[in-house]
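Give me the fold.
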Amino acid sequence: MSSSSSSSTLCSVLSNLTAFVVNEGHGVKGLSDLGLQALPDQYIQPPAERITASTVITDDSIPVIDMSPENPQVGEMICEAAKKWGFFQIINHGIPLEALEEVKAATYRFFSQPAEEKKKHSKGNSPTTNVRYGTSFAPLAEKALEWKDYLSLFYVSDEQANSFWPSACREEALNFLKISEIVVKRLLEALMEGLNVKEINGAKESLLMGSRRININYYPKCPNPELTVGIGRHSDVSTLTLLLQDEIGGLYVRKLDGGDDDTWVPVPPITGALVINIGDALQILSNGRYKSIEHRVIANGSNSRISVPIFVNPRPEDVIGPLPELLDGGEKPLYKQVLYSDYVRHFFKKAHDGKETVDFAKLNI
């Protein structure tokens, strides 16, 4: 293609960016692949939403917890990290490195497909609401778009996954989701023990981990990465989130006791590690003892990046509120009882806005 033809194509795309990125299924990867020299205006974030060197702390980091059986303090370390940071990394967790590498390769494989293949799974085209390919977070609600494409896979059953999840990543995503379950249970057992909740069986297990969703995320190389974000400020609506990072990195966590409302700590990639964070649901269930923390992802001007989070959630029909075991001990509830599907709906109907969704569940005391 000649330079004049390429320039004409780029001008045509930019004149109707939504059609190209969203409707035609190219996503921001398609924009990046065009060889953009400047960030489109639609992706330029307000200065307050960008990370700058002055707001980043590089001499501190979230805890790294060794999950091996030889570590007798692992439970205490998990609970302490959940209270102080809301984030930590785990090593020696038992998930084979091969499985992690396979799901990363599958992520690249899915996003390298032509737009018409990916578009089959977008809103309005996907045969099920449990599989959704998209871009940014909430394009219709956002004043500035985020530099990210994603595929979201809500697990219902093996049968549905085999029928509807894309073949490019189905086997690897399903395997990662399944083999992570034993790690999830171990983490939740430690966290519940820290609340003096002794057993996670039946209804309690369903409340804590009754539904699961795995996303595969793609953050293309970005022109002017300092002007935009990969993901804006938010906390997850999950009970727990397990995140597999690649070697590029780009995740930042708000520091709770940084002495400044806008202090951020990078989460450096560690080979074979998983990043764990407390979600809003567990903050509410723990009556505020465990913290769901704002985090964000920067864009990268040199490399494309991927990540694979698993969101462990209550079931949509569950009601979340402070656990009875805590209130029976005399604690005053900080949060009201909320139907989890209502909570999630409130989160997804708006742009990323920090911790506003948790405020939606607070009692007016």
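The chain has a mean pLDDT of 90.
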